[in-house]
């Protein structure tokens, strides 16, 4: 999906500029391919720029390190294609606007969070040339799938299904007509010295590195392993954290290091129940999250909740809590619950908590906080600080789900009201929770 973000007439210029933000890859990237086509049409070189923004609050070295690994590979792939990759530091609308002064056209990709949309709006204002946005982080463009906020996965599934047959085609890759990779005319930060960059960006180092290496090559290696060794058990075992059947695509999707369409097509080619269960998560659930942040301006607070959930939580706001923990206790995995602590330790140690435990983890914080607002804040803080895939539409939707979003009312009970409840007994029924607790037990 293409969208003009300002009304400037076509401009003469020395190059076409692609401002890479959400789609941090040189393959399967619709914004990049559109920019190549536009540069070729004008017989101009294409420059790709990426902006490291030191204003990013509370970002951990683990996120930035993973991102820089991916960007280094992307830079090398772009160079192979004859395209210069310029990395700058500073507020994006300033860095990109400066490079855009001599551009005939600026192209942007599309992230859905408020900060990303605001960046593009500021850039559209600053530039004196046309700015075009190209959507590439979804299988079905968000406004094509639905024109409004969807109530649940069931309502969204029906809408998006109409656009999945025939299944969207992969992005064709074009050669550039005019090379820019070796003109040496532009300044760029060196990605081969990530430590220096992390210092420049003021990244916090509380968490230590995550257990994943960034970049498309690693994403494809994991995807390949998933399809060969794990997909066949996905439908039955994806809710068992001891089974190790997940794809681990979320960090790579979050940073746009692999195309969601590439992942979807690879799995779909296998077919069968397991592939269908996976596509339900990757396409329906993930793109429902994009729908949520696109259409619900309050996605980062309990104000986003449906009326029934807000009402029932308010009705039970005064219920006594059996346990109450402050953010610091939660962060330190210092609760009375060995399963919850194990989940928090998995997160701290690896940068990725198992998906099934994320639900339990969120529900318990709601149960153990003095107010739903405090619980909401604690969950988003921990999720965004430690999950490698945090600060993502999926994270906002996942936290909101713990408070009733995209869900229905259940039997009423203390603290939760009619919001779905989870307990340790339920975990033990589903899988060997003690084995999981031992795996991520205290040292
Ligand atoms: C409280 C809570 C917080 C969460 N925070 C995040 C987050 O910050 N970032 C994030 O990407 N996901 C988040 N999720 C959703 C989900 O848990 C993760 O996407 C999944 O565990 C990632 O691991 P994977 O790639 O190995 O998953 P797989 O099971 O292999 O799934 C493949 C892909 O499908 C998508 N997917 C899977 N489950 C969901 C889901 N429930 N909702 C939406 N998309 C899904 C993801 O893109 C994932 O990469 C959260 C869920 C909850 C309940």
Automatic annotation (TrEMBL):
GO terms for biological process: photoreactive repair. Residues 14-142 form the Photolyase/cryptochrome alpha/beta domain. It comes from the Archaea. Its cofactor is coenzyme F420-(gamma-Glu)n; FAD. Keywords: Chromophore, DNA damage, DNA repair, DNA-binding, FAD, Flavoprotein, Lyase. Its EC number is 4.1.99.3. It catalyses: cyclobutadipyrimidine (in DNA) = 2 pyrimidine residues (in DNA). Pfam families: DNA_photolyase (PF00875). It is an enzyme of class 4 (lyase). GO terms for molecular function: deoxyribodipyrimidine photo-lyase activity; DNA binding. Belongs to the DNA photolyase class-2 family. This is Deoxyribodipyrimidine photo-lyase. The lineage of its organism: Archaea, Methanobacteriati, Methanobacteriota, Stenosarchaea group, Methanomicrobia.
